Amino acid sequence: MKENTGISKYVMLGMLARMPQTGYTIKKWIENEYSHFWQESFGQIYPTLKKLVAEGLAVSSDNTQSGNGRGQIVYSITDTGRKELSDWLRKEPKIEKLRYEILLKISFGENIEPEVLLGHLDSFIRRNEKLVKDMNGYIELFKKLKEQDIDCSYSQLTALCGVYVYSAMRDWAIEAKKIISEKGVDDHETKGS
């Protein structure tokens, strides 16, 4: 099981505050809506849900009406759980830590051929362009849901953050490619003289 930072508890409470859910539906929701800024594994989700029930922050019920013949445990938040979530939401967020392996590789770039770094940057650009497209797709979905009187304004804001972050990372990579390419030409001219 992955180390639980303590935030998993509040992720689960926030998900349950939206509606009663199974561990599986929570995992899928996180993968779809939060993957650009947060991950939770099944190894974190299920023990956390059990702990929420033990602490009285959630309740569980066996749903044998799932249609697949297997019972599913559905979790719901309690009033105590809502208070716990509210108390956490009021606290100042911890400082975010950025971890991008590509930035490490670029910073040590003098140890490898520029073509290798350019290839890494091309892949990074494609990945970020896809992520921008995905986030814009979520924004459009949230707008359609709003037309059906389902308010996803706050989820739309997290997707919008994804658009800005991934656009900035893509733009950085394009600029980095230009600088590395120009440096390669300069280095070649220096060695040739």
From TrEMBL:
It comes from the Bacteria. Residues 12-86 form the Transcription regulator PadR N-terminal domain. Pfam families: PadR, Vir_act_alpha_C. Residues 98-179 form the Transcription regulator PadR C-terminal domain. Gene3D superfamilies: Winged helix-like DNA-binding domain superfamily/Winged helix DNA-binding domain. InterPro entries: Tscrpt_reg_PadR_C, Tscrpt_reg_PadR_N, WH-like_DNA-bd_sf, WH_DNA-bd_sf. This is PadR family transcriptional regulator. It comes from Caproiciproducens galactitolivorans.
